[in-house]
Write a sequence for this structure.
């Protein structure tokens, strides 16, 4: 059954790719049906009787011409309908009994109805039905009410209705296919538009929450600073309002940002963000994994701003991870964190002799997500990152991070903006 189905599918595809061959086969089949029917004599009591009559040479010629015209039914549907209709009318007029040349008209009318619009189908179909039926009734040898004449009316009407149904089905399928293709093309744009709208809505919510509560905190803090020395009780009350406003702001921020979480996402961490203060612990994990690491850190007592401290930690973490994965056996790594003026320079070197990392590609490459992540993190702070092979072997990652952020954070932030320094 599978082989038979595959063969039918292939034959159908071949016929669709060669419509002229299909029309030629259809014309041959219609000709065979017309010649076979021309030898039959209808008998109402016992069905048709074959061999009772023989078509004349003129009838055979008309049947050949009608079938030959069907070969061009796709290219000239209306012309073919007119030719086959004329041949059928001539057959009704000259031959007694007439040969079934009207079969070619049925196929031609079906083609016209399937390839044009509905108003044209109605006009052409009614005209064909009326002309052929009247011709059969008026000039035919049989009475006007005979079943042969009614058969002409029925078959032409059926051909027009069937062709119109096929045209409607094709239009429906084409509309569905076009809608699906349009949806496929616009799905990505629609997704981006919805994401942008959702981000804008959440940004507005965050703006409302932060602006309102920060304004309250600013006012109450100013009151507390003004009355701190003379009226400490009122200052305590203002500080209590500050604490309450900040708590409300945090709760609303948590609720708003929580809308972005999905089922199964991990809970928000309660421990402080990592930094260079725990760099020894990070390096220890790589040493325990068999990677010798040497660390050099200047000004260990001079803490870095929180954002810079976290970025430096993540850069070292990702760089050492790449060394462990790509540098090969026997590789060693060196980590240095140096504070130079208003910048912090983080350098990670290795002498890997394995496959070794390759230079960081462009973001469109789709690979090396670790290096891309480091570059994005450094760029967000206004710094620069270079990563590439070293002369003589190995790999080098070098990042320069400004200590003064884009929000004009001071070089020496207070304890609220510090997560720690190099240990």
């Amino acid at each position: 059954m599978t082989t038979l189905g595959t063969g039918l599918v292939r034959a159908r595809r071949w016929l669709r790719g060669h419509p002229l061959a299909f029309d030629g086969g259809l014309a041959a089949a219609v000709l065979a049906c017309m010649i076979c029917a021309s030898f039959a004599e209808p008998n109402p009591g016992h069905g048709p009787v074959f061999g009772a009559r023989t078509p004349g040479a003129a009838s055979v010629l008309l049947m050949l011409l009608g079938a030959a015209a069907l070969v061009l039914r796709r290219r000239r549907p209306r012309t073919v309908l007119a030719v086959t209709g004329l041949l059928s009318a001539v057959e009704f007029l000259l031959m007694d009994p007439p040969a079934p040349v009207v079969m070619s008209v049925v196929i031609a009318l079906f083609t016209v109805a399937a390839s044009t619009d509905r108003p044209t189908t109605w006009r052409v179909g009614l005209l064909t039905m009326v002309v052929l039926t009247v011709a059969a009734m008026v000039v035919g040898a049989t009475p006007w009410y005979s079943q042969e004449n009614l058969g002409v009316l029925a078959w032409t009407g059926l051909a027009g209705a069937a062709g119109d149904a096929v045209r409607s089905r094709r239009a429906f399928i084409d509309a569905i296919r076009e809608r699906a293709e349009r949806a496929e093309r616009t799905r990505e744009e629609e997704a981006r538009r919805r994401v942008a709208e959702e981000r804008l809505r959440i940004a507005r919510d965050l703006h409302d929450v932060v602006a309102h509560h920060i304004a309250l905190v600013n006012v109450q803090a100013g009151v507390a600073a003004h009355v701190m020395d003379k009226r400490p009780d009122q200052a305590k009350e203002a500080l209590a309002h500050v604490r309450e406003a900040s708590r409300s702001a945090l709760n609303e921020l948590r609720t708003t940002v929580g809308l972005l979480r999905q089922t199964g996402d991990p809970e928000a961490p309660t421990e402080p963000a990592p930094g260079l203060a725990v760099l020894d612990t990070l390096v220890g994990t790589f040493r325990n994994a068999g990677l010798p690491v040497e660390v050099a850190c200047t000004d260990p007592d001079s803490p870095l701003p929180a954002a810079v401290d976290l970025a430096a930690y993540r850069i070292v973490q990702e760089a050492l991870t790449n060394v462990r994965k790509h540098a090969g056996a026997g590789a060693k790594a060196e980590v240095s964190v140096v504070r130079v003026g208003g910048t912090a320079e983080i350098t990670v070197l290795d002498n890997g002799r394995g496959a070794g990392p390759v230079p960081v590609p462009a973001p469109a490459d789709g690979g090396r997500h670790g290096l891309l992540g480091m570059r994005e993190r450094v760029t967000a702070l206004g710094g620069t990152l270079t990563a590439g092979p070293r002369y003589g072997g190995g790999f080098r990652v070098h990042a320069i991070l400004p200590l003064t952020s884009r929000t004009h954070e001071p070089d020496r932030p207070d304890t609220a903006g510090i997560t720690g320094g190099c240990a």
In short: The longest strand covers residues 333-340. Residues 187 and 193 are 10 Å apart (CA to CA). The mean pLDDT is 77. The two ends are 76 Å apart (CA to CA).
